[in-house]
Amino acid sequence: MSKSTEPLHRVFVSYRFGDEALVAQLVRELRRQDHIEVYFFIENRKIGTWPEQVQRALDDCETVLIVLGETVGATQESEVRHVLKTKKRFIIVQLTEDLPSFTLPLAPLELSAARVLAKGGGAGFWCGVGRQVWTLLWGSHKAPPPWVEIDGLPIGYPFGYEKDLIKAFDPTSGDIASHRLDLVTLGCPASWPSARVGVPPWYENQIHESVIGSYGDSEARISVDARQSIPSKLSFLEARPRRRLSLPHRGRPGVRVAIVVSGGIAPGINAVLASLIERHRLYSGQDALIRVYHGGFQGLHDGADNFEIVDWTDAKVKELARTAGSCVATARFDELLNSRGVDRIRILDRIIGFLQDIDILYVIGGDGSMRAAHALATRASENTSSCLSVVGIPKTMDNDILWVWQSFGFASAVEMATRFSRQLHQESFSNPRLCVMQLFGSDSGFVVSHAALASGDCDAALIPEVDFNLVQIAKGLIGKLKERKKSQRRPFGLVMMAETAIPRDWNNYVTVARLSAAETMAVQHFDANGRRVIGQTPDDLRSAALKLVSFGLQFLIRKEGTHDAYWNSFRVFSNEPRHLIRSMEPSSIDVTFARRLGNLAVDNAMAGYTDFMVSQWLTEYVLVPLELVVLGRKRVPPSGIFWKSVIANTGQESGSTATGTSGARTVGSSYPGESEAEQT
Question: For residue 254, is it left (φ>0), alpha (ψ between -120 and 50) or beta?
Fold first, then answer.
């Protein structure tokens, strides 16, 4: 979320270390706002010298937020003493009814009218406390910025790997680990969540188990970590048909359903659509009113004219499952997630307003779509007139959604990418050149990695998780080209790259690659944002990446012409088969997988569950709370066994695979002096 250019209100939070878990939840609510910068010491504890940090932060702030619990620690007392001495503005947040006793004069605190009582718990509670603090912060300001209502979304992508997320929680209590409370301020839940029931079940399922499959125990759970040998509270509800149902609601005839497909297409979308329609007809017959919205979330936002009522015959639905593409028009709606807080809330509430007569919204989409689904579910829960259940069904060619073992369409994408790579390898072998093949991967390299390993023809795999310099990649390729020229009289090769695999030394090749001003700006923006993409890849960034790698490699290879004139005219060509891959018919595996996801989505939506994504995790189908899904995007761990297998297969030199990061700055990073035991 982009911040306003208006001046920030700087706030220092003073608290006792024993109250840190509570304070982290308050800080989270304040950081969701557009015009505030909060200094929270937990994130800086082992960086630099403590007194100097606190002194600078106190001097820079406009307001000090003094959180008072049952007692006051020595550190907090020294901070309060400094506040009183400098006469800075302060606000008191009381965690108990009575103020604790101090060893310093309390008169200024006793006389303060800026006081908030915070006695309770839960995300909604801390949102209310944050709002009170926010009102006091701006006081009599002529035009105070509006409070951004809760939407459930974290700040950025705190995680890039499920194991990192698992390690952040205590398995015995289910609470966030004490040394990872900084993650709470980014939007990570303080305790391990579960798929929630929006409307409690009230009647028996009329479909016999012999037809629908055995009913699941409402409390049956699947552990998230196969490695754990001790009982753990870190688990997901098992996805099964349910004995008791919630829909249709009392007093409402039939069930009203909306389906939206967001983002790009992927093999298997129509199989999901077919299973959703068939399953609802099994439950409700012709009483099920099913709308499919065209244009993704943009269609939902624009209103009533963008949907059609599904009245397709059963034969048409059955045939639909095997077809390619999407029979429902899909699109991206970047404004939903890229807007500033208040604007995003307005968009979300507008969509919910159009869905007042809908019981279930199924969202078929990728990482951004799951974030939008969670935000909609969160806003719907805040709307007393809405009974909307929101269900996510993961769709992505990149395979980058957290808690998805493999998304539907991914197997088809890898199979097609491997097939195309063999054809391009044959092209470069027959007419000796180097081919650069750009595949999916806006923020992760799963398709490239799997296709490179499967084809056996790849000489270098470039993914956004792993830093590389083009000169290092060229050095390894030149060695291979020279050897093949000598042994086979054919200097050929194949490079696979993800769409955001930008070399670290890209600045050296801007002119050679003939980047436009817009493409150069896109790469600069990419660098400035931590070399991460949120949502879809901008077209200018994608084209810039391909130009930098293909023209840059050609330039470096041709430099060998100073030693051997043969290389002066060596050619590098590029190919982008992304659209051909995504529009292929799904494999039988993807059809089967997509249909199972659709069936289980309906089974659990009918039982009243909401704000979840149906997924296969490890070997089981589960209900993953969207609150956990939105915490990041899955990435290839550069130090993992799988990536090491890929580069061993391609023969890339170790110098061309400098380790990047599989997650964001907050995960997996150790503080100076932190021991391995403390990290885990």
Answer: left
C-alpha span between 154 and 371 (Å, rounded): 9
* pLDDT band at residue 82 using 50, 70 and 90 as cut-offs: confident
Regarding whether 420 and 522 lie in a shared domain, the answer is yes
Model pTM? 0.90
Nearest-angstrom CA–CA distance, 135 and 130: 9
Segment 138-156, tens digit of pLDDT = 876 667 788 998 899 998 8
Q: Specify the residue for token string 């499959």.
A: 213
Judge if 379 and 415 occupy the same domain.
no
CA dist 633 and 162 (Å) reads 9
310 residue type, one letter? V
Residue 271 is which amino acid? A
Alpha carbons 475 and 477: distance in angstroms, whole number: 6
The four Cα atoms 500, 502, 507, 508 give a dihedral, to 10 degrees, of -140
Instruction: Please name which of 434, 257, 451 lies closest in space to residue 362, comparing C-alpha atoms.
Output: 257
| CA gap 579, 364 in Å, rounded | 19
Backbone angles phi, psi at 477, to 5 degrees: -65, -40
Residue 218: Cβ-neighbour burial (10 angstroms; 0-12, 13-18, 19+): middle
> Is there a single domain that holds both residue 315 and residue 451?
no
Name the E strands within 463-521: 493-498
